[in-house]
Hints:
Layout: H1 2-14, H2 20-33, H3 39-75, H4 78-84, H5 90-98, H6 102-111, H7 117-123, H8 131-136, H9 142-155, H10 170-207
Helix pairs in contact: 1-2, 1-3, 2-3, 3-7, 3-9, 5-10, 6-10, 9-10
Amino acid sequence: MLQDVLRDSLSWVQGLGPIAPIAFILIYNLATVLFVPGLILTLGGGVLFGLGFGTLYVFIAATLGATIAFLIGRNFARSWVTEKMVGYPKFEAIDAAVAKNGFKIVLLTRLSPLFPFNVLNYAFGITQVSLKDYVLGSIGMVPGTVLYVYLGSLIGNIALIGTKNTLVNPEAERLQWIAKIIGFIVTIGVTIYIARIAQKALDQTIEE
């Protein structure tokens, strides 16, 4: 199972001593490029490094991985990514909005769990957003990163990540519910905002 592979990778990183952060970042980068969901690795960052360094390493890893995927989508796999985006109708709204509001759209979509992280990395590569705005917009990942790294630090055991016993800690269970509620509220706001910008862009195109 994928979860077992990720947990084994985290256990391996745990025994690497001073080079553990580098190995963790490289594994996270590879997972991001290969469309592997990053939740277990993010939780693992909290288990391995605690809240402070865990947040730093996860953010660096996610940003680097996302940038690599973005560049692949823009320079080497544009036709493949375009074909894949047919299955994501919400992407049309993002594509229409990003031309004039690149940084803001990247920032907002990073805040919302509605938009799949790994898919967006490649998808943004075929939009008009600049690399600078794309990278700076990654700051939108910080709130979610802090929440899940902290949750991982509360779990405290790599073997428990992704299992039914993950939330043995009552505080961890409360934090997960808070994350879900915040994610739901943010998703509604981001969806409405992007829809409005997309509609304005469409109206301007029709008028021209």
